[in-house]
Structure formats: C-alpha cells, structure tokens
Design brief:
The structure holds two protein chains of two kinds. Helices cover about 0% and strands about 55% of the residues of chain A. Chain A is mainly β. In chain B, a hairpin with a 5-residue loop joins strand 6 and strand 7.
C-alpha cells in the first residue's frame, strides 16, 4: 500500500523555467511533509519541509505548497538550474506518533540548457 | 564526524554468504532508519528505531534480514544467505525526534551479490 505517491517518474524542464513536482498521499493522519533531493551515488539530502498548519513554505528558489483537502503537495523550483537535475523524493509522517518518514518513489528532474 | 556514517561504502559478496552493514548516526539523534534503493526504484523502507520503543520492522522483506541498534547509537543491518535480489544501495538515516523532524542520510552501502 503506497501511502505516498509520486505519479510522474520523470520531468524535463528548460533552464530558467519553473519545475513543478507533485506528490499525493492517502493517510489523513500525516501532518508533516518533506522534500529530499538525491544525486547519483549520494544519500538523499533534505530540501524543504512543511507542517500541515501551513499551506505554503518558501526557501529561496524552492516553494512547497500543501493542499490538505486534496491530500496533495507540490514543490516549485524557480528558476530551474542545471544543478537541480536530480531525483526528488517527497516524504510524510504523523508527528503525533513520531512515526517513521514514508517516502514516495521519486521523480527524476532533468533541467536542460 | 558531523554526519551519518555508513560502512562499508561498497560490498561485493557471493550468493549465500551473510553480510553486515554498519551505520553510525548523528550523535544525539534518537531515531534511526534503514532504507534500500534497488536499481531504478524508489526508497524502500526496511526498519525504524525510535528511542527505547520497539523497532518498526514492517519493511523487512524476509526473515533473512535483521537489524539491531546497540546502546541507542550504532546500528547493524544483517542479511543472511544473501540472494541476487538483495543487491541494492542500503541507506541509513537518523533524525533528532523521528518523524517530527527531517532525517539526515548517510552515503549508503552499495551491496552487490554475485
């Protein structure tokens, strides 16, 4: 049972344009959401997070949007840069139980020149 | 060191042999995770330790897999009688308070079973 889903396995975006990565979840108890970036041969690195009490969190070029009613979150990267090319994972947890992070299957972003 | 450390970074083993993978979490982190990533796949959850609570072993794929965390710090993932389908990158992560906070990942151990 995949509780966190990333339905787009890959995405290609031109440099300078906006990249939008999507994530859906099914567990209504999830209240903390994170995005990770992974380069080949490296461990994932934390990018940005959002609590369910918010609907938007921004950090530089990265913004995460949360739509609780739709159980959907998205990561916006603008402007996209070639160095953003990586696999992006979303993750979710239920902070009330300090439960484990549940990850999606990832979306490979390719930023082209 | 300041980050999560995993050893070895690479391991090639013969089918049927046992292997042990080690993870040194960030000091003071109460939560520790093991995930694996097979070629072309996402992050597959294996096991989660949180403080003194019983570990969440729900992701272990078979009874050949086991993990322990001694003294609330270092963790060892053991795979007995390895099979070719066990070949993957095994990733360890730790966090300060479990799912309440972001997890920091190690570089992973690439396991190849031949």
């Amino acid at each position: 049972d995949q509780q966190v889903k990333q339905n787009s396995p890959s995405l290609s975006v031109q440099e300078g344009r906006i990249s939008i990565l999507n994530c859906d979840y099914t567990n209504s108890m999830f209240d903390y959401f994170l995005w990770y970036k992974k380069y080949p041969a490296e461990g994932p690195t934390f990018l940005i997070s959002i609590s369910s009490i918010k609907d938007k969190n921004e950090d530089g070029r990265f913004t995460v949007f949360l739509n609780k009613s739709a159980k959907h979150l998205s990561l916006h990267i603008v402007p996209s840069q070639p160095g953003d090319s990586a696999v992006y994972f979303c993750a979710a947890s239920n902070t009330g139980t300090a439960s484990k992070l549940t990850f999606g299957t990832g979306t490979r972003l390719q930023v082209t020149l | 060191g300041a980050g999560v450390s995993q050893s070895p970074s690479n391991k090639v083993t013969e089918k049927g042999k046992d292997v042990e993978l080690r993870c040194d979490p960030i000091s003071g982190h109460t939560a520790l995770y093991w995930y694996r990533q097979s070629l072309g796949q996402g992050l597959e959850f294996l096991i989660y330790f949180q403080g003194n609570s019983a570990p969440d072993k729900s992701g272990l794929p078979s009874d050949r897999f086991s993990a322990e965390r001694t003294g609330g710090s270092v963790s060892t993932l053991t795979i007995q009688r390895t099979q070719q389908e066990d070949s993957a990158v095994y990733l360890c992560a730790s966090s300060f308070q479990g799912g309440n906070t972001e997890a920091f990942f190690g570089q992973g151990t690439r396991l190849t079973v031949v």
